[in-house]
Amino acid sequence: MPAPPSSSSSVCTFLLIFLLAVRASNCAAKATKNTRPPRQLSVDYYAKKCPQLEQIVGSVTSQQFKEAPVSGPATIRLFFHDCFVEGCDASILISTKPGSKELAEKDAEDNKDLRVEAFQTINKANELVERKCPGIVSCADILAVAARDFVHLAGGPYYQVKKGRWDGKISMASRVQYNIPRANFTIDQQLKLFNSKGLTLEDLVVLSGAHTFGFAHCKQFVGRLYNYRGTKQPDP
Length: 236
Ligand code: HEM
Fold this sequence. Notes:
This protein is mainly alpha-helical. It has nine helices and no strands. It has helices spanning 9-17, 25-28, 53-67, 71-83, 116-132, 139-153, 187-196, 201-208, 222-226. Protoporphyrin IX containing FE binds at residues 17, 73-74, 76-77, 80, 113, 115, 181-183, 185, 190, 204, 207-208, 210-211, 213-217, 220.
């Protein structure tokens, strides 16, 4: 069970991140079969086949958080951007095939500012997991566990992560644009998108609290500082 929530909305944000039910090129090799039976997610999914999973991922996330703290917000955002496009299947970690006309998700315009530290974290964790439990754990599960670890390392609660996700094979940049909210979306547009994923207004508000953590590039809000809707004034 997750730890009981405190009154802070950012804590609620962290609690709800696990509602989001996102792999590097070496992870892509794990997505093999086309037809796969549905899996029942569970907290102890790897209890028999890879009991050390969370400990292994934890060793990587805690080291990353010390050495490159931006890995925290970067990984949480990576998880979100994966989950909103074709579900939490780590398809965002797949690289564009050399010579392919269709770019992969990670190369979509809306994903260009995802930080390299997030990809490095999942890659490192995946390498260690593969050494101990070869071919058992999906990158989608590694990403979900790593995102939870960073929530906790940043001062949020610890919650149990259900596991058993399949890794996706399909990763298309063309599927990103309409599934990831933009900085200039109205609330109505954001809500429509969240509703389409089965998430509510409350989820939208709470999850948006993730922005108490991390950075935004100036280009995302410079218009509101100096030229709000063409007025040449700041956003009132
Ligand atoms: C509600 C609609 C959302 C919009 C419009 C939005 C938009 C943005 C934008 C424009 C940035 C700055 C990106 C940059 O300049 O590099 C950002 C950063 C971030 N977003 Fe969101 N986002 C939304 C929802 C979420 C959700 C649901 C989560 C996770 C639960 C999330 C987690 C983050 C984090 C952690 C960062 C900081 C990333 C970093 O420092 O590397 N966002 N978001």
